[in-house]
Amino acid sequence: MNKTQDPHHSISSYALLHGERTLSKLGPATGETILDLGCGPGEYTIRIAGLTGNDGRVLAVDQNPQALDTLRKRAADLGLGNIDILQQDFCAPLPLPPAGADAVLLCTVLHHPAQRQRIDALLDGICPLLRPGGRLVIVEMHKKETPFGPPLNVRIAAEDLEPQVCAHGMKRTGYQDLGAAYLLRFSPA
C-alpha cells in the first residue's frame, strides 16, 4: 500500500466530484506548499501530502474538530508528517508569508452560508498568499438540480463566482465541467 491509500476509505465527495481530475488541475508537486481550506477529514489533504512529499507542506484548515481528529489519525496511520492541521475560521490570518503558497484548494466550501457572506474577506486573505504563477482551484456544485449536493438556493454559479475572484487580482486559467460540479482555476494576474 502506498502512503496515499487508506484501508478505511469510503465513498465521499472526493469520489463523487472526480477528485483525481481536481488534483490534476491543482497540480501538486514535490516540495510545494499547498493550502487545503475546508479540508474536512482530509480526502484531498492525504493525497496532496503524498504528492508533495517530505519536502512539501500541506496546510489543512477546517472548523470541524471531529473532521480534523479523523484527519490527524489518518495522517499518523499513513506516516504523513508533512501536514499541518489548523482548526480555525477561514478568514483568520494563516501562518504563511505573502507569496508563501504554491496552491490553494477550496473544494465545495464557498456555498456554505457562513462562508458565502464572507467570500471577499476570504479572498482578501488567501490571494496574497499565492506566489506568482501559483494556483487557486475552486470546486462548487452547478447551480442546477443534481442527485446530490447542497440545496439549489445556496449554490454559486460559475459565472457569478469568476468575476468575484478576478476582482481580487486573479485571472481565470481554467474551467472544467465535472458533471454535477464545476472547477475554476485561477492564478495571480
Outline the secondary-structure elements.
Elements: H1 13-16, H2 19-26, E1 33-37, H3 43-52, E2 57-62, H4 65-77, E3 83-87, E4 101-107, H5 113-116, H6 119-126, E5 130-141, H7 158-166, E6 170-177, E7 181-188
Parallel strand pairs: 1-2, 1-4, 2-3, 4-5
Antiparallel strand pairs: 5-7, 6-7
What does this structure look like?
It is a single chain. With 189 residues, this protein is α/β, with parallel strands linked by helices. The protein has 7 helices and 7 strands. The chain has helices at residues 13-16, 19-26, 43-52, 65-77, 113-116, 119-126, 158-166; strands at residues 33-37, 57-62, 83-87, 101-107, 130-141, 170-177, 181-188. It has a 7-stranded mixed β-sheet, sandwiched between helices.
